[in-house]
Amino acid sequence: MKNVANQKYYLVREDVLTDAMQKTLEAKQLLESGAVSSIWDAVKKVDLSRSAFYKYRDAVFPFHSIVQERILTIIIQLQDQKGTLAKLLEIITIAHCNVLTIHQTIPIQGRANVTLSLDVTSMSIDLNELIEQINKLEFVEAAEVISSGAL
């Protein structure tokens, strides 16, 4: 077995994971939520072999499970309107994220980029939900995670 300290980790989008990796994540979620009581029930429910589950169970993790005690950096493209930053920060506050840094560019052609570094240790919602909520704001043109790192 490899020394965990010497392993490299990567953040990848869900759509590039193999089918077996995605099903392993689903099975782990079923087990964690209590929807099933055994690995056998979980793999059966998601149509995955037990050998594939054991192969990937300690190798693939949902992003939200590894962002504890983390700094998350998000870049957001905003329309230049009065009060947009305040409304954006309200969403961040409701999600129980702590703002560490804010960098906003000077608006050019009615748009500004805001880069937020957040302590997401106490975040109360899933990361995907946070990004969805930010993207739903009428003045947000795009929001995406650009990095994550340990505090």
TrEMBL record:
It comes from the Bacteria. Residues 73-148 form the ACT domain. CDD domains: ACT_PheB-BS. InterPro entries: ACT-like_dom_sf, ACT_dom, UPF0735_ACT_dom-cont. Belongs to the UPF0735 family. This is UPF0735 ACT domain-containing protein CD30_11445.
